[in-house]
Amino acid sequence: GTVVSSTALRRLIGRGDVREAAVLLGRCHGFSGPVVHGDGRGKGLGFPTANLQYPQVVLPARGVYATRVTLEGRVWPSVTNVGHKPTFGRNELTVEAFLLENCPDLYGRTLRLDFVDRLRDERRFADAEELKAQINADVAAARRTLAAAARG
Questions:
Q1: Strands, DSSP E only, in the chain?
Q2: Alpha helices, DSSP H, located in 40-116
Q3: Is the overall model pTM greater than 0.85, yes or no?
């Protein structure tokens, strides 16, 4: 009984409400893009990320999301940051996904990234250790969120 418009969907996604957008879409919002080389900071912190080149698509608001990555029919639970990496003084908008399970080398391969739910806003951390602690918390939150989503 709800009218679903592209304007309403763009508004929901743009403010990071990907869960409500999925209800209206009947599926998660996402995109496909190739994995490109980043700065290697995630790997140095113990969280190697797949940096995705994103197409002309509505991206969710800057922040951290529980996501799913699909490659050649296999799905991996993941946690994804959409943002400018303020802790490291970056200005360029990036989309980087950390897969919660072991995966093959992804460089140059095209992945599908689907946004399940927003976990938190993007923020600046005092140092790499504080960021690492937050990523551990984000991983735990993503696991809980994705498990709940799988149960329906």
A1: 29-36, 50-52, 63-71, 74-83, 94-99, 110-121
A2: 41-45
A3: yes
